[in-house]
Amino acid sequence: MIGSWWIRFRRGLGRLLSGQSLQWRLAFMTGASVALSVLLVGSAVFAITRWSLLEQLDRELVGVAQSAARSIQQSVADGQDGFRLELLGSADGLLSVVSSDGTVVSLPGESAAILPQSDEIAVARLRSGSSARTVIADGITYRAVSVPLNLTDGDYAVMYARPTAALEATLASLWLVMVAAGILGLMTSTIAALWTAQAVLAPVRRLSQAVKSVTQTDQLNPIRIYGRDDLGELTRSFNTMLKSLQTSREQQTQLIADAGHELRTPLTSMRTNVELLVADEKSGMLPDGARAVILADVAAQLGEFSALIGDLVALTRDDHLQRPHEPLDLAEVVDSAIARAKRRGPGIHFDIQLEPTPIMGDASTLERAITNLLDNAVKFSPPDGTITVHLEGGALTVIDDGPGIDEDDLPLIFDRFFRSDKARNTPGTGLGLSIVLHTTHAHGGTVKASNAPGRGARFVLRLPVVDLVEHEQ
Q1: How far is C-alpha 434 from the chain's CA centre?
Q2: pLDDT in tens, 322-334
Q3: pTM summary value
Q4: Can you say whether the dihedral through the CA atoms of 448, 453, 457, 463 is positive or negative?
């Protein structure tokens, strides 16, 4: 029952706040928290104060009743008849004597009488202890106490009651003060929460405006950081994201521009050859054998064009997809890549030394990247050259017998579409080494290019080695 009520309350509160701004939500929640705190604390203070005042009143009434009991005992000891209650002068309360059988002797002239209950009768019979209770007589609320009256001729108790009007007035004043203070505190805290929320949420609003500006203007301008708190850290993270987006956009723009430039040459050449074939179909202007040469040229250009498109697609896919990594042996991947490279260079000798190297990675992308390294070595090595392929300690070293790499070209060798002067007339798309770099970084490794003394280019690809047994556990 309580659980269903709480669920309905939360849903209703959620619907109420769903259409409000975050600033008003914070103000509402702060006000509600303060109101609940004031209610709980005020109720506790009121209850404790009421209990304390009743305790104080009870002690005072018990003292008056005990004084009356002593006076009655003294009057009986002096041999006076009856209790002579009129001598006690209890003008501010009701004074009476209760016997153990429930008989009540009231002060002469008192219009109101309080009937005894089991508590007062028990005090008379036991001749010890005291009792206190709240009672209403003739429409007036009294606080009544009883104390034992020790007489030789019977068991009695003195019962004394006083109106609680003064106590109730004090509590009413206290309640009014607490309500007024609670309302004032609630209003003050809500206003303070609104002001605080406005100040605290200012960086959030700036972020919101920045997002709108990016959407509307397409400008990835960084946002000014105003502090070192969590919101400042959020702003820094947002600026880092904007910088990454700007870098990605620049790379995409550069990739499109470079791809357009690289595609223009084979397309122009293919168009020229096709136009020659069409013209020859009409006029027969080409000499014997020229048509076959042109068709062979078109076929070669189509192969180059297809390879370029394939590399672009592969590079774009790897830029946007993160393939899951699995345990594998890098030596097996390298061995598969060597088998493919041997078919491209049938006369080249391969000096192979591979040791088992457990890693975490994607076999297909790694094999393509290593194949690109080996294809590059095959392309620049002489037909009877030697390519060294060593895998040791997580480092794959590939050395060819080619002309090497110019020192000025070493920093640019992994850039997309970069082709050195030595590679201008060699087949290729200019994306092979870029794919190697990207794949290596995606696997947490590094790749470096240099020149081997007395030989050609040297590439060293390093990947982190893992303990597959421990990883599986």
Answers
A1: 37
A2: 567 889 999 999 9
A3: 0.44
A4: negative
